[in-house]
Write a structure and sequence with these properties.
Shape of chain B: globular
CATH superfamily of one domain in chain B: P-loop containing nucleotide triphosphate hydrolases
CATH architecture of one domain in chain B: 3-Layer(aba) Sandwich
Helix content of chain A: over 70%
CATH topology of the largest domain in chain A: MetI-like fold
Distance between the termini of chain B: 34 Å
Order of helices and strands of chain B: EEEHEEEHHHHEHEHEEHH
Number of helices of chain A: 13
Oligomer: heterodimer
Largest interface: A-B, 35 and 36 residues
Order of helices and strands of chain A: HHHHHHHHHHHHH
Shape of chain A: flat
Strand order of the largest sheet of chain B: 6-7-8-3-9-10
Radius of gyration of chain A: 23 Å
Strand content of chain A: under 5%
Largest sheet of chain A: none
CATH class of the largest domain in chain A: Mainly Alpha
Distance between the termini of chain A: 29 Å
Largest sheet of chain B: 6 strands, mixed
CATH architecture of the largest domain in chain A: Orthogonal Bundle
Number of strands of chain A: 0
Number of helices of chain B: 9
Chain lengths: 312, 266
């Protein structure tokens, strides 16, 4: 077998710490040219140019949205697509209202939200703690990495039926699938970031006679934040997937359950309504992570937080 | 002779397989039988070709690494690990990007458990001294390279070390910024009476800032020459730069390093 450690690390997401430090380096190179407080004004100028660009982008995005909504509403009719394949947007909306009135849509959405929240939180905590532990102990990492790799390759959603067998038709199996699926990207990102902390920074702390614990809290832990957050971004969307699959497999609560029910009844509009709500939950979860990231990583030069390319 | 602040006694440092009896994994000798000593308030530079083990000396001096043979002493006590008498400053400023300039300057004191109020006082003074007051609450990425290096100098001085180890601290800066920072450093060293060991590639820098210049051979690094700089104004490197005698020192150093003889850039 090839060295499993390398494989495990190679699967990590593009290292945001590296990108961030590159960005820092370029902005500094730019700033060096102008002495005194000039770098700040240069940055300010750059940000106004960016915001003008953003305004243009926002308008274009809105136009795309309008086109999409109009296309969904009138497209199927114009193209002669049957409503049980693609119902009109307004039909999906009224189905949503119907579900809200008769099938406790809010209750099911709430259950799904709760499972996502708990699954995501537990998965993150477990993944981060394991990542820091393995990162601080190379021996443990070498011993554990083949098993971590195997578990990482295993399709996590395939565990859903097993968890139902173990825990029954309640929320536990759904939360567990989410925990399992969120765990790995967080673990790998944290582990990679601890491994790639600049050794010179550690030496600097050592020269101040820092204890192992101080090196962790003052250097390694904060240095891992950009990576941790890119893991959290991925995790937030995966948590919704995990919970949805869990709800498909068993039980009678949650949007995943509503979705399967709609499918059984041939109610396409209801399936679409569930998909839209699940997406909305994912967007909210992702957005909350971005908000937290903006606050925690406020020391980094401004970057495009909404960029899809950097997120998944 | 005054007691040595920093002393290397016949220090050798090797890397690689310690019991390479089979010769498959040869040992690399970074430095060999190096002896040097710095007395209180002295500034000594070390120059030499790339890869001659200059940075190894610095790691040994700061206690981050142990010699394979010989002894390193600070204030006549053997160095057996990092200690608060010695602080280092590198080419990389090593500012933590998530800390403001003030918090970066306070890092060392914070690690050593100095109460917040006292370290704030020290960092404020140093930040003002190095003309960074405006940027106290800025993050490192908002500063230019020269300002960042000044912040790194403030962080080093905040530890109030007896001995400063400087590893090409200005080599990443442009020529003008470099001269300004050299002046800042020279003034500080003089006024605080600090002892400093400066590793550099820059021959003019070595002569302009130091009392003595040591020349090291290529690997394994040995001290091959010691030159005493007999110029006035050690605290005014810019004045020294234009001193008529400086050319003679530079010429001597160039010939010792064989610069221009074998097309071998140091």
């Amino acid at each position: 077998m090839a060295a499993p450690k390398k494989v495990a690390l190679a699967t990590a997401q593009p290292n945001p710490a590296a990108t961030a430090s590159c960005a820092a380096a370029t902005s500094c190179a730019a700033a060096t040219i102008e002495p005194g407080p000039a770098p700040l004004t240069a940055a300010a100028r750059r940000s106004t140019r960016l915001s003008r660009l953003n305004r243009k982008e926002t308008w274009l995005s809105l136009i795309v949205l309008v086109l999409f909504v109009a296309g969904w509403e009138w497209g199927p009719v114009l193209l002669g697509i049957a409503p049980y394949n693609i119902p009109r947007l307004s039909a999906v909306f009224s189905e949503g209202v119907h579900l809200y009135q008769n099938s406790e849509l809010l209750w099911h959405s709430g259950i799904t939200c709760f499972e996502v929240l708990v699954g995501f939180t537990l998965g993150c905590l477990l993944g981060a703690v394991m990542g820091y532990l393995l990162g601080m102990s190379p021996l443990t990492e070498i011993v554990a990495s083949p098993y971590i790799l195997a578990l990482q390759i295993a399709p996590k959603v395939a565990f859903a039926p097993l968890f139902i067998l173990w825990f029954g038709y309640n929320m536990a199996p759904k939360i567990l699938v989410a925990v399992l699926i969120v765990f790995f990207p967080i673990l790998i990102n944290v582990l990679t970031s601890i491994r790639t902390v600049d050794p010179a920074l550690i030496n600097l702390a050592r020269s101040f006679k820092a204890s192992r614990w101080q090196i962790f809290w003052k250097i390694e832990f904060p240095a891992s934040m950009p990576s941790l957050f890119s893991g959290l971004r991925i995790g937030s969307t995966l948590a919704v997937i995990g919970v949805t699959v869990g709800e498909f497999v068993g039980g009678n609560t949650g949007l995943g359950y509503l979705l399967v029910q709609g499918e059984g009844q041939g109610n396409t509009a209801s399936v679409f309504a569930a998909i839209i709500l699940l997406t909305a939950i994912g967007i909210i979860a992702y957005g909350l992570v971005i908000l937290a990231e903006r606050y925690v990583l406020r020391y980094l030069p401004k970057r495009d937080f909404g960029d899809v390319a950097t997120s998944v | 002779m005054a007691p040595a602040r920093l002393e290397f006694r016949r220090v050798t440092k090797t890397f690689g397989n310690r019991n390479a009896a089979d010769g498959r994994d040869p040992v690399i000798t970074a430095i060999e039988d190096v002896s040097l000593s710095l007395t209180q308030g002295e500034v000594v530079s070390l120059i030499g070709p790339s890869g001659c083990g200059k940075s190894t000396l610095l790691n040994l001096g700061s206690g981050l690494d142990r010699p394979s043979a010989g002894m390193v002493l600070v204030d006549e006590e053997q160095v057996d690990g990092p200690n608060s008498h010695v602080a280092f400053m590198l080419q990389k400023d090593l500012l933590l990007p998530w800390r403001t300039i003030q918090a970066n300057v306070e890092l060392g004191q914070e690690i050593q458990g100095v109460p917040a109020e006292r370290r704030r006082k020290v960092s404020r003074e140093l930040i003002a001294k190095y003309h960074l007051s405006e940027f106290e609450d800025a993050y490192p990425h908002q500063l230019s390279g020269g300002m960042r290096q000044r912040a790194a100098l403030a962080r080093t001085m905040a530890m109030d070390p007896d001995v400063l180890l400087l590893d090409e601290p200005f080599s990443a800066l442009d020529a003008q910024t470099k001269m300004v920072l050299q002046t800042d450093l020279a003034r500080t060293l003089k006024s605080e009476g600090k002892t400093a060991f400066l590793i550099t590639h820059d021959l003019v820098e070595a002569v302009a800032l130091s009392d003595r210049v040591l020349v090291m051979s290529s690997r394994p690094g040995r001290i091959i020459e010691e030159i005493t700089v007999e110029l006035p104004d050690r605290d005014k490197p810019i004045a020294r730069r234009s001193h008529p005698d400086i050319a003679g020192y530079i010429a001597k150093l160039m010939s010792l390093l064989h610069i221009g003889e074998e097309n071998e850039a140091a």
